[in-house]
C-alpha cells in the first residue's frame, strides 16, 4: 500500500510503501529532477498492528505518519517525521 506525502520537507512528493505483517516497509524519498523520477530508498520496519495515517500533525510543513493501533479503548499512536534527508527518523 503506497502512502504519499512529503516526508522530508523538500517539496518533492515521497512514497512510503507499507504492507501489514512481516514484509519490510520502504521509505522512498524523491530525488527527482525535472525530467526523471528517482528515489533514495530506505528500509523500515513497522509493527503490523499499526495503521498509518498521513498528515502534517505538528504544523512544520513536513508530512508525518501517525501510527494508529485500535487495540484498546484508548488509541495507541505516535507521530513521526522524516525531518531530514538522512534516514534517522524513528518510526514508532
Ligand atoms: Ca520529499
Ligand atoms: Ca510535520
UniProtKB/TrEMBL annotation:
This is FG-GAP repeat protein. InterPro entries: FG-GAP, Integrin_alpha_N. Residues 77-92 have a biased composition (Low complexity). Keywords: Signal. It comes from the Bacteria. The keyword Signal applies. Residues 73-92 are annotated as: Disordered.
Amino acid at each position: 500500500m503506497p502512502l504519499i506525502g512529503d516526508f522530508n520537507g523538500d517539496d518533492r512528493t515521497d512514497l512510503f510503501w507499507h504492507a501489514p505483517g512481516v514484509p519490510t516497509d520502504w521509505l522512498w524519498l524523491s530525488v527527482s529532477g525535472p525530467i526523471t523520477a528517482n528515489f533514495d530508498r530506505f528500509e523500515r520496519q513497522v509493527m503490523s498492528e499499526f495503521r498509518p495515517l498521513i498528515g502534517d500533525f505538528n504544523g512544520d510543513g513536513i508530512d508525518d505518519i501517525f501510527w494508529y493501533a485500535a487495540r484498546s479503548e484508548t488509541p495507541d499512536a505516535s507521530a513521526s517525521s522524516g525531518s531530514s534527508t538522512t534516514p534517522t527518523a524513528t518510526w514508532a
